[in-house]
Amino acid sequence: MSEYVPDERAKWAWDIIRNRRAVRDFDLTRPISDDVIYRVLEAGTWAPSPENWQPWRYILITDPAIKQFIGEKTVRACIRDFGVAMPRRIVEEHYSYFRRKRISEYVVDIMATGQRMDYAKKAPMQVAIVFDAECTGFEDYPTVVGMFAGMQSINMGLICAGNTLVNMWNMASAMGFGAVFTDFAITHQDDEAEIARVLNVPYPRWRIAGFFCMGWPAFPRTVGPPRYPVEALTFENQWGNFWEPKKKPTW
Ligand SMILES: Cc1cc2nc3c(=O)[nH]c(=O)nc-3n(C[C@H](O)[C@H](O)[C@H](O)COP(=O)(O)O)c2cc1C
User: Ligand 1 mean position to 23 CA, how many Å?
Assistant: First the structure.
């Protein structure tokens, strides 16, 4: 049996994936130049999609008034979910990975008051990720099978939105920028329709997945939520039958 030996590229890829974090504190004194924005969006375009449909579009928000509008919706939705709907005890439990009580209480407070989402009002780079909810292909691209088969799938469009997002997020992180994604502003359909009107999105064929926000990080983010181990999430052949790996990576 051949032994897998990781090379430098594999180690870099793991390092980028493993150390990407949601960064919500940006240095607002440092703008982001267009070449950086371009490369991050370009990373997004190299995401995989069915038949290479690329059913994503990006709306770069540069107008401070529109940013403010989206940011306010984001903050209000955060208050609605974390400050009103969820009992404080549950929110505290959720953030218990912050070992120091003073820090976890602070995080609970800024979630309950929506302050944690303030970044969405001023993020140096803010991009709405819009996806084709029908994902039937394009009229000017007649080789697309789905168009003839009458195939419709919101799932495909949404999966692709996720793919393009993760490419952008990992690229941003690898370049040393901080980034996060927020969908708070569109978690209620009325809000999504309103934002779609403001952004002139041909809704509901094209839907808004959420907003990718990026900037120079105000400080490095070290602590973040942990992950379940693979073996707690992976079944073998049948749901409930946990996979037991015979070997795990040592790198
Ligand atoms: C689909 C999706 C929606 C998210 N929504 C929000 C959001 O509305 N606001 C926010 O600040 N972070 C949001 N996040 C970021 C997550 O909270 C974050 O990725 C998660 O807690 C894991 O932390 P990490 O990215 O630092 O590993 C979202 C992430 C994803 C993928």
Answer: 9
Contacts of 59 (CB under 8 A, 6+ apart): 127, 128, 130, 199, 201
> Residue 173 in contact with residue 20, Cβ under 8 Å?
yes
Q: Which residues line ligand 1 (CB under 6 A)?
A: 21-22, 24, 117, 180-184, 210, 224-225
> For 201-211, how does the pLDDT look when each residue is reduced to its tens digit (9 = 90+)?
999 989 999 99
Q: Which amino acid is at 89?
A: R
How sure is the predictor about 98, in pLDDT bands with cuts at 50, 70 and 90? confident
Q: How far is the CA of 165 from the centre of ligand 1 (A)?
A: 11
Nearest CA to ligand 1 atom 20: 22
Q: Are 119 and 25 in contact (CB under 8 A)?
A: yes
What domains are there in the chain, each with its CATH number? 23-68+119-218 (3.40.109.10)
* Three-class DSSP category at 215: strand
Q: Please answer whether residues 134 and 146 qualify as being in contact, where contact means their C-beta atoms are separated by less than 8 angstroms.
A: no
Best substitution site from 163, 183, 184 to test ligand 1's pocket, by max atoms within 8 Å of Cβ? 183
Task: Give the contacts of 41 (CB within 8 A, at least 6 positions apart).
Answer: 58, 60, 127, 168
Total-model pTM: 0.93
